[in-house]
Amino acid sequence: MGHLFSVFAVLALFGAVFALGCNPGAVECVNSTSYRTCGEYAVWGEPVSCLVDQQCINGVCENRLGCQPGTRECINDYSYHVCGEHALWGPVQPCFSYQTCSAGYCTPEPQCPDYQQTRCSPSNPNQVQICNAQHQWEYYRNCDNGCQNGYCRACSPGSTRCSDSYRYQTCNGDGQWGPDSYCGANYVCRSGSCVISPLIQCTSIGAFRCAGGSSNILQRCGENYQWVDFSYCQMGCFSGACRVCSIGETKCQDSQTYLRCTDNGQWGLATSCPNGYYCFAGSCQVPTGSQCSTVGQKRCSPTNSNMLQACGNNYVYQDYLSCPNGCVNGICAECKPGTSVCAGATTYRTCSDSGQLSEAKACTSGYTCDHGACIATPHCSEGQRNCVSDSVYSCVNGEWQLLFHCPSDTDCKVSSGTAYCEKEAQQNQSSGSQGGQQQGGKQEEQKQPAQQSTSSIEMLLAGTTIVFGAAAIYLFSRMKKK
Q: Which of 131, 217, 362, 413 could pair covalently with 211 via S-S, beta carbons 3.0-4.6 A apart?
């Protein structure tokens, strides 16, 4: 009976294996880089990755064969191959024409052997090329005198230049300047050529120069190309011409323009005088009557009685200051001659014929100054205000004192115990009786200002009564509604 049970158990185990799908302990590759193992219950486990540089073969991680996938290498100078994913070299690949293989890659065929080697461009004789890191020729620089042996020429072969006043150099076949050569006696170097010294011989018939031994002799190049004395310059010789004037000197060309002597002793271009000026004795001047002799001197303008003029640095009178009260005897007037102004409540000053104010003068006792005139001083009650002429006065210590003047377009008016300024248009609209009272003379208002005023206390009591009456009516109406 026991053996029968064992047989059934084995059969059951095999049945389970076939039913679950794998043999415990078996392994298989999941992909080229991982594998899995069948567990004791005939179930596949989780995938396990192989180590780097390994691949899965028949469920076992083994080192790759032959090469590292992705590696490239040259077969020869013109072909290469690439390692595939199974560590096997792929087929040989040829490079294109004009390419060579380097480190497994096709690159342009080297054009030059040495890095930074130079040469003259085959297509441009004035250009230098250089060998770059990829051994290809590329542009380096341009040459003004052409390229030779991979370098720019310093000069054009056969050309010459002066090394100093008596020596010259010749450019050799390599484009470099050769050694110095001496021009010889009586010759000098000019623009790379040896020419006869101008001290001995001239080159242009009719040319002029100043003699080297004298600053007053002008020489001319004769028919035999020899310098000969031509003229004596009274004012000296400069730059191949006799000076005709002194530097900075001026002269009139006509009545409106003048000339100035330049640094080479010749007359320069004509310069026009400013508007209103004319040229006289080499300078632009103003007409007679506007000239002066002392800088800062002042006068009244002959054409503008309100303008003060001053003598400028050019000794010409110029507008200096505007005088509101006119100009008199070379100064601005303080006032208009013949007028007077108040200096204080009881003093005044008069304006003289020269437009200057006199010392303060006192009004006669009992008089007050108003608009420059002394008028009788009215008596009054403390605090009152009244009109005196067109000014508002206030009563201080029993006497009227000026408080302020009314503007020119207003008149002084007395009303309700005070005085104030009122526009003339408004005053004309007032009642006829009031106008008649004012036309009757302000002297009466000055004598009895208290009789024309209303008590300020009475006005205050009347206003208070109106306010309290309005408040009572309002409260009574609210109580009635309730």
A: 217
